[in-house]
């Protein structure tokens, strides 16, 4: 179920990009990858059909992947709330950076964010796109933590 929610959220992101014309910033790309990581963990868990211990491991992996996305969304929200004179300069597109820079440098630059990341281009119920991703990542972290600390099922007798 969580994997389907992540797939739906990625579908919304691609709709916003290709239909609404909203160009994703570097932090948006990384948040997409975090949703993909969460969906990947869920897919592995479904295929593996884990027991109690492995289920806790998958819950921990879910919490880590979602926590990473939450940190990225938090960084973008922080950039969006900076005073205009403190916003970093706009950088090149992710596609261009991947062509001319090593991957490690692209990731570092993307995690720091650019002026593009500070632009609020869409709002719903008062929250910008990273605000909504933070809501979803927070819920996913909670689910992952609950999976880690859930009570063990009693062994079946007879």
Task: Give a verbal description of the structure.
With 158 residues, the protein is an all-alpha fold. The chain has one domain: Bromodomain-like, CATH 1.20.1550. The protein contains 7 helices and 2 strands. The chain has helices spanning 2-18, 26-48, 52-80, 94-100, 103-112, 115-118, 129-149, and strands at 123-124, 127-128. It has a two-stranded antiparallel sheet with strand order 1-2. Helix 2 crosses helix 5 (103-112). The chain is elongated. The mean pLDDT is 83.
How is the topology of this model organized?
Blueprint: H1 2-18, H2 26-48, H3 52-80, H4 94-100, H5 103-112, H6 115-118, E1 123-124, E2 127-128, H7 129-149
Antiparallel strand pairs: 1-2
Please state the CA-atom Rg, rounded to the nearest Å: 18 Å
What is the SS-derived class? mainly alpha
From N to C, what is the helix and strand string? HHHHHHEEH
Strand order, main sheet: write it out: 1-2
Percentage of residues in strands: under 5%
How would the global form be characterised?
elongated
Count of individual domains: 1
By CATH's scheme, which homologous superfamily applies? DsbB-like
Q: Span from first to last CA? A: 32 Å
- Total strands: the figure is 2
Low-confidence stretches: none
Mean pLDDT value: 83
Residues in helices, as a percent range: over 70%
CATH architecture: Up-down Bundle
Question: What is the CATH class name?
Answer: Mainly Alpha
Q: Work out the helix count.
A: 7
Largest sheet: 2 strands, antiparallel
Q: What is the name of the CATH topology?
A: Bromodomain-like
